[in-house]
């Protein structure tokens, strides 16, 4: 079997951790059981470019249980859990091409190793697989039924491709399922971002001024959790509606440069470039921590930060001190890459359970419906999204009411008024 991982000897730790996560991914486990019987993915080659974590390992197991042949590479050079790669290769016979800390060249070599399998379905987190396929391996398009995309940043890229007419096959935006973004983006990013910052620095949050750039679902999640730990929150936004929402949620809202002057901790979650840049670095307090929780390492302008620095030194794993010409020190976490997946373990299994249930059902949906799909970005049908919600509720033994016939009728009528 072809693969490229750090160290096969890490497999036993990886297996234990994969099994621990599996205990907390009941929806995915139920789907796996059904897949084992029905084999809906039989004969399908699935190329996956996802964060190589314990949760992803359980998704790969599910796709294989469904009869799929899979290959996995990393969707970020710093997020790979090397013990998980070892276990996937050694215990589950799944080819993985990923090494934590790999350089850019190796990262793309690994993406190409996945593409070498000539996939029928591409599974992306950030759209690097699909964009490499479109730009460098176009001949593979003929085999593809459709793809899936896990994250907001990837969906934005794919919608841009569809709009320009360059998207060559249909894609299911898993991110846009309610059982994905409302939980993974909000509670997953909220908790794991703080986890990454705390593991990297062991800093106290209580009483600190904590700035969150971006008030999308991820930014909201980070803000509510940081507030819960006693920090004083400031939100920066460009969208006026989201800014009002942040105000009415009880947060202070101000311009990024003004927030930078008073931030103890400043975190980006916007999906855009150079959100923290020279004007921000120049006014930052001595000792400020800066981190990114967005998909790509573009939100903090590292080049500008370097050019302002007279000394750069790693003080702890994932903490780099930049001593600036103005005498102040700022600390960059995880090289400006996803702090939650670089310095911590990413989102907990309970939320990835729903995200990866969406991925599994999306792969099945593609297999059954690819002939009907056009070269567009689709949501997973609502009935599947709601089925995942029902399965999740059942797994946490929570019952809800159903509408009576009378109530159903009332909701679909317009004649009854005051
Ligand atoms: N994205 C965020 N957290 C993740 C995790 N734990 N596994 C895979 N992808 C993720």
Write the layout of secondary structure elements.
Blueprint lengths: L10 H12 L3 H13 L6 E5 L4 H12 L3 E5 L8 H9 L5 E2 L6 H12 L5 E4 L3 H9 L9 E4 L2 H12 L7 E3 L4 H24 L7 E5 L3 H12 L3 E5 L3 H9 L3 E2 L2 H7 L2 E4 L9 H6 L4 E5 L9 H7 E8 L2 E6 L4 E5 L5 H4 L6 H21 L7 E2 L3 H14 L9 H7 L7
Parallel strand pairs: 1-2, 1-4, 2-3, 4-5, 5-6, 6-15, 7-8, 7-10, 8-9, 10-11, 11-14
Antiparallel strand pairs: 12-13, 13-14
Helix pairs in contact: 1-3, 1-4, 2-3, 2-15, 3-15, 5-6, 8-9, 8-15, 15-16
Widest beta sheet: strand line-up:
9-8-7-10-11-14-13-12
In DSSP terms, counting alpha (H) and pi (I) runs of 4 or more, how many helices? 17
CATH topology of the largest domain: Rossmann fold
Main sheet attributes: strand count, strand direction, barrel closure: 8 strands, mixed
Bound molecules: adenine
Report the strand count.
Answer: 15
The number of domains: 2
Radius of gyration over C-alpha positions, nearest whole angstrom: 22 Å
Report helical residue fraction.
Answer: 40-55%
* CATH homologous superfamily identity of the largest domain: Adenosylhomocysteinase-like
Termini separation comes to 70 Å
**By helix and strand content, what is the structural category?**
alpha/beta
